[in-house]
């Protein structure tokens, strides 16, 4: 089970990294690169969520899933990564609007 928990944490970290890369690209006016980074971030979040779902399914099927500090940390990382990505997508749209207004 620890391996699955570390998978969640790993993919969340990658997702956050790609999301912040996307914001950096957007601030530099590189919107195609920003879109590519957001797609990579979304894929990492999908992988993380898939692993989380597998753990939930295991528990539903009667397997004991221990709630450890590491598990709590993984869940926190996933929620944080999702929230940050959602906010960054909105910030990228704001960067586009600002660029248009400055023309």
Automatic annotation (TrEMBL):
Mg(2+) binds at residue 76. Keywords: Magnesium, Metal-binding, Phosphotransferase system, Sugar transport, Transferase, Transport. One of its GO terms (molecular function) is metal ion binding. The keyword Cell inner membrane does not apply. Binds 1 Mg(2+) ion per trimer. SUPFAM superfamilies: Enzyme IIa from lactose specific PTS, IIa-lac (SSF46973). The modification Phosphohistidine is found at residue 73. Its cofactor is Mg(2+). GO terms for biological process: phosphoenolpyruvate-dependent sugar phosphotransferase system. Signal peptide: none annotated. The keyword Transport applies. The active site is at residue 73. This is PTS system, Lactose/Cellobiose specific IIA subunit. It comes from Clostridium intestinale URNW. The lineage of its organism: Bacteria, Bacillati, Bacillota, Clostridia, Eubacteriales.
């Amino acid at each position: 089970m620890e391996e699955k928990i570390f998978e969640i944490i790993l993919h969340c970290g990658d997702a956050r990294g790609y999301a912040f890369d996307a914001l950096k690209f957007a601030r530099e006016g590189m919107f195609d690169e920003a879109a590519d980074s957001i797609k990579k971030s979304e894929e990492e979040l999908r992988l993380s969520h898939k692993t989380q779902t597998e753990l939930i399914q295991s528990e539903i099927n009667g397997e004991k899933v221990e709630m450890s500090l590491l598990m709590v940390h993984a869940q926190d990382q996933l929620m944080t990564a999702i929230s940050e990505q959602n906010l960054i997508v909105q910030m990228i749209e704001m960067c586009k609007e600002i660029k248009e207004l400055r023309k």
